[in-house]
Write a structure and sequence with these properties.
Strand content: 5-15%
Strand order of the largest sheet: 3-2-1-4-5-6
Number of strands: 6
Helix content: 55-70%
Shape: extended
CATH class of the domain at 220-350: Alpha Beta
Order of helices and strands: HHHHHHHHHEHEHEHEHEHEH
CATH superfamily of the domain at 220-350: NAD(P)-binding Rossmann-like Domain
CATH architecture of the domain at 220-350: 3-Layer(aba) Sandwich
Largest sheet: 6 strands, parallel
Bound molecules: adenosine monophosphate
Number of helices: 15
Length: about 350
């Protein structure tokens, strides 16, 4: 038994190494060559042939399951720069296969397990919905993420899907799992998928209260005269670059990953939506000399500016706008200046134009 397991593990390891070494180079290379022919059909056919080829080849050569082979084929293709195109091209096929997949899962499911083993089904659902999400909650909190993020991630993980069916099927075929085990996994998956929207509905109710109770920490830079930048996107990035060395800066950024990257790059960052009063407040607005509102939505910008103006009547507030109507809205909310992107481009173009009138040739 142990010997057989060791051989299987050895084969899987050899398969993974071969896939990582050869697959990383060969598959992207083929994808590029096929893409350069310019034929969409050929590209779609190539992706399909490679996916099925790797899946079949791996099951024939290494004895791993067809599904595991296909999974690795997908992982390898994801490495290629053309992966998005490959995914788009195969989307209709994926939907068709997904339907077939779920039909076959439905045929495997024996509903009588709900009556025969109600306790075992309840325990399986509890492991998935409570156990798995609790583990996720602990891990996310251990990484010092906000409770709201931890709860959202655990609710997202409070279900199992197709990969568990593949593993259960593999377990049964290798005689590691009794067939009843697969029925329990299937029942657990179906029930946990049904319960998931309810969990999210509950989360929607809890999150606003939690967010209000969890005010963001005020960065040290906010205690002295400083500038505040809201939104570190295409506009905000350039503003932050230009402010380097001129004034201490506090950035408010809603996007979690972007905020993390900024923090790692040494910025004083508050992660959250600046429309929320507690987020804006933690930027130390009373000490701010300048507020740069570089978010794309003018209505959000206006709400941010109104609150900022109420907190600090003296700060210079500069906002991003798209139209004259935006400028009027933002000025009315309390902005000192609202700049329209297109007009600034024209201004920059003119700055590059000849300074003096060139001699005209008739
Ligand atoms: P861009 O459109 O490329 O200039 O990006 C706008 C940036 O502003 C993105 O990084 C958004 O996450 C961020 N952002 C948009 N709205 C808000 C908001 N209300 N509070 C904080 N950050 C925001």
């Amino acid at each position: 038994m142990l010997g057989a397991l060791a051989i299987t593990l050895g084969k899987v390891a050899a398969f993974v190494v071969l896939m990582l070494v050869v697959g990383r180079r060969v598959i992207p290379w083929i994808l590029h060559r096929v893409a350069h022919t310019g034929s969409r059909e050929l590209f779609r056919l190539g992706v399909l042939a490679m996916a099925l080829g790797v899946a079949f080849g791996s099951s024939a050569l290494f004895g791993v399951s067809f599904a595991l082979g296909a999974f690795f084929a997908g992982m390898i293709m994801a490495e290629s720069e053309l992966s998005q195109q490959a995914a788009n091209e195969t989307l209709p096929l994926r939907d068709a296969f997904a339907v077939l997949f779920f039909v076959s899962i439905g045929m495997l499911f024996d509903p009588s397990v709900l009556l025969r083993q109600p306790l075992a089904v309840a325990a399986t659902v509890a492991i998935i919905v409570v156990g798995k999400s609790l583990a996720a909650l602990v891990i996310v909190l251990a990484f010092k993420r906000p409770k709201s993020v931890a709860l959202t991630i655990s609710a997202s993980l409070a279900q199992i899907g197709e990969f568990s069916f593949i593993l259960a099927g593999l377990g049964v075929s290798l005689k590691l799992l009794p067939p009843e085990g697969r029925d329990l996994v299937l029942a657990g998956a179906i029930l946990s998928i049904l319960l998931n929207p309810l969990l999210f509905a509950l989360l929607d109710k809890i999150l606003p209260t939690l967010a209000a109770r969890e005010p963001p920490r005020q960065p040290d830079a906010a205690a002295q005269p400083h500038a505040v930048l809201v939104g570190y996107g295409r506009v905000g990035r350039a503003v932050a670059e230009g402010l380097k060395g001129r004034t201490p800066l506090v950035v408010i950024e809603d996007d979690l990953e972007r905020a993390d990257a900024l923090r790692e790059a040494g910025f004083a960052v508050i992660q959250g939506n600046a429309v929320r009063p507690e987020v804006l407040k933690s930027a130390g607005l009373d000490k701010a000399t300048h507020l740069f509102v570089a978010v794309p939505n003018p209505f959000e910008a206006a709400r941010i500016i109104e609150q900022a103006r109420a907190a600090n009547p003296k700060a210079a507030i500069i906002a991003r706008a798209y139209s004259d109507a935006d400028v009027a809205l933002l000025r009315q909310a309390g902005a000192n200046q609202a700049l329209i992107g297109e007009q600034e481009i024209a201004r920059a173009m003119l700055a590059l134009a000849p300074k003096r009138k060139a001699a005209t040739v008739h």
